[in-house]
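User: Some background: our group keeps a shared notebook of sequences we're curious about, and every so often someone picks one and asks for a predicted structure to add to the entry. Today it's my turn. The entry only has the sequence so far, pasted here. Could you supply the structure so I can complete it?
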Amino acid sequence: MWGGVDFDSDGNSETPADVNWTELTLTRRPHNDERVDIDPVSEDPLVLKISSATPGLARRTAEFLTRLCGGSMSR
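Assistant: Of course. Here's the predicted structure to add to the notebook entry:
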């Protein structure tokens, strides 16, 4: 989302390589000036809500996940 910058993450994965996560928060360091939250709306089918107060960050995150994982985006 930001390129090669330091960031903090917190979510519900068992390990860093876990592909079965459904919740994730990313915060850009060192000033914690940008944050994106990914939360489940439903689990079956899996629908994620992606939100950020930073213009464009939620959309970039959704586009990244769509490219990486498949699926589709909607508002």
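Suggested note for the entry: The mean pLDDT is 93. Strands lie at 7-11, 24-28, 35-43, 46-51.
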